[in-house]
Amino acid sequence: MINKLIEKIKATNAPIVVGLDPMLSYVPEHVQQKAFAEYGETLEGAAEAIWQFNKAIVDATCDLIPAVKPQVAMYEQFGVPGMAAYEKTVSYCQEKGLVVIGDIKRGDIGSTSEAYAVGHLGHVKVGSKSYAGFHEDFATVNPYLGSDGVKPFIKVCKEEKKGLFILVKTSNPSSGEFQDRLIDGRPLYEWVGEQVAAWGEEHMGDSYSYIGAVVGATYPKMGKVLRSIMPKSYILVPGYGAQGGQGKDLVHFFNEDGLGAIVNSSRGIIAAYKQEKYASFGAENFADASRQAVVDMVTDIRTALENA
Amino acid sequence: MINKLIEKIKATNAPIVVGLDPMLSYVPEHVQQKAFAEYGETLEGAAEAIWQFNKAIVDATCDLIPAVKPQVAMYEQFGVPGMAAYEKTVSYCQEKGLVVIGDIKRGDIGSTSEAYAVGHLGHVKVGSKSYAGFHEDFATVNPYLGSDGVKPFIKVCKEEKKGLFILVKTSNPSSGEFQDRLIDGRPLYEWVGEQVAAWGEEHMGDSYSYIGAVVGATYPKMGKVLRSIMPKSYILVPGYGAQGGQGKDLVHFFNEDGLGAIVNSSRGIIAAYKQEKYASFGAENFADASRQAVVDMVTDIRTALENA
Q1: What percentage of chain A has pLDDT greater than the value 90?
Q2: Any idea which residues are catalytic in this one (chains A, B) (predicted)?
């Protein structure tokens, strides 16, 4: 799957991923009203609204982008109907040829991590049959529990040709509280990065590993260090746009081959029509605003990479 | 909710929680076959099998125990139907008067953590209505992302009178890879424990905080240190039984008031009928075997506490 992701990044010349994190407040009034007319103001109605919202954005942007990253929390908040909308979104994006990175940040131990891995990236056995529950192509994983928590995911990825992005240095302001603490003179995130690199070297696609890392765009200097610690790991970079990261901050996350990083934007793309810059599209044309925001983001990053 | 949990622990004189982590391989053949006869060998069939399995165990043990801890991964592996079985299990246990600890180990940042918190412990707004998606009473949370990740959960707990157990030192063999690394001479888990204690002091029930911690039974010495670092935090202790923890290892997790800890056993209870010790019950009477295993676990822990 890492090979497919890289092919798609090259084909689109767009090292970006659109975060499908649909807060109900991002969904234009007319989309909400149509869903509520059919299902009422229920969890099913909310799930229908976010699904229709996603579908329009995917239709408007899928030729420009290699991948999407649905954030499962935004679906999970709507209970079981929300999880059904998540699965429907994953399926639809895959039908459109997109690589799907499930931003699930799961992590547990042993058989429990295996259950998460099986449910999201693999197949679960039921009697003589087997089923793929949520069938994302990649998943994000939390490493706090150590190897026991990560290895079951790696095992399933190997069997199913899927991939991971492991949290190393997250984009949020307080990520340093634990991640930046010094251990033998080096911050925790570097130790986690070294572990990711070690796992990565044992699990290679053609040129990059299918065991990648998450490093926030908001910490470009740390990104530079982590890039060199994990030369073969793809880095998923959140924090661009709404969280403050800019194109020029991103250059250190890439390797000299122009590859090695994929930059996520969620709100900046899917709620673009709410920004002053794209207000002229109007709420009716929210998906066209998202398309323009993708074009602008790709230009920003390409320009930064060319000037680097 | 922490007050209710403590009341129930006192009323049952059982500081234990039954982990409802139903691997399909734990579900007796006759329960599986009945579910498959109705729904086929499908995800729905698997979900029905684990739900019927849970229901029988809850019916057989609910008068003896204060709480259950369903592990969401075991449901999530069966996709959307699995998540529906999870919600049904939570509802049923609450109807039976049990406190439900959702072992979800979620953790993200800002609005994303808030979405998890709302979906599992709170209410989500849909138009003019609001709904509780999975409505557990407590949830486990992963602290790797720092305060940004935890505070949205605390906020929802405060509003909804729910509670948290934050991962401090997990029970698995490799938990030390990151959690035990020394920072200014003290292991990371102690720093996380101090943070949990600080959050806890600001969010108190009558005698204990509703911000608790997870500390594995497999690390009793660390449990002793963490007990003194977090005097007002309830400690959820996994790792008893199948993972190797015994009654005598647990005494240091309790305070002198005999409270302060709640010990989980999953496989040891729900798959008791598979153990030699309880084999005479037979697979047909798996729930009775679980009841006996609860009685034996409570006796083991009470004896250890009395001899401490």
Answers
A1: 84
A2: 105
B108: which residues sit within 8 A by CB, 6+ positions away?
A71, A73, A105, B116, B145, B149
Specify the residue for token string 């079951």. Answer: A152
Q: Which candidate from B24, B76, B107 shows the least CB-CB separation from A105? A: B107
Residue B244 has pLDDT above 80, yes or no: no
Pull the structure tokens for residue A272.
Answer: 């673009």
Q: What is the pLDDT of residue B145?
A: 87
Reported ipTM: the value is: 0.94
Nearest CA in chain B to A136: B79
Burial state string for B132-167 with b = 16 or more CB within 10 A and e = fewer than 16: bbbbbbbbbbbbbbbbbbbbbbbbbbeebebbbbbb
Give yes or no: A274 in active site. Answer: no
Q: Is B299 on the interface with A (CB under 8 A)?
A: no
pLDDT at A105: 96
Residue keyed to tokens 């009685």: B295
In whole angstroms, what is the distance from residue A225 CA to residue B155 CA? Answer: 35
Measured between CB atoms, which of A79, A132, A181 is closest to B134? A79
Q: Are A192 and A260 in contact (CB under 8 A)?
A: no
Task: Point out which residues pair with A245 in neighbouring strands.
Answer: A240
Q: What is the pLDDT of residues B16-37, one digit of tens each?
A: 999 999 999 999 999 999 999 9
Q: Which of B79, B109, B188 sits opposite A170 (nearest CB)?
A: B109
Q: Name residue, tokens 């926030």.
A: A216
What's residue B186's pLDDT? Answer: 92
CB contacts under 8 A, B 103-122 vs A, are 105-113, 115-116, 118-120
CB-neighbour burial class of residue A274 (10 A; exposed 0-12, middle 13-18, buried 19+): middle
Mean pLDDT of A152-160: 97
Q: Is residue B129 over pLDDT 90?
A: yes
| Residue-wise pLDDT tens digits, B76-127 | 999 999 999 999 999 999 999 999 999 999 999 989 999 999 999 999 999 9
pLDDT-based confidence at residue B265 (cuts at 50, 70, 90): very high
> What element of type H or E holds A119?
helix A110-121
Q: Could you tell me the sign of the dihedral formed by the alpha carbons of B207, B210, B211, B215, in that order?
A: positive
Cα–Cα nearest to B90, from B76, B100, B105: B100
pLDDT score recorded for residue A242:
67
Restricting to A residues 58-87, those with a Cβ less than 8 Å away from any Cβ of B are 71, 73-74, 76-80, 82-84, 87
| Chain B CB within 8 Å of residue A190 CB | no
Residues 204-243 of B with CB under 8 A from A: none
- Look at B133 and A82 and tell me if their CB atoms are within 8 Å: yes
Structure tokens belonging to residue A21: 């994190």
Catalytic pick among A55, A88, A96, A105: A105
Taking 90 as the threshold, does the pLDDT of residue A198 lie above it? yes
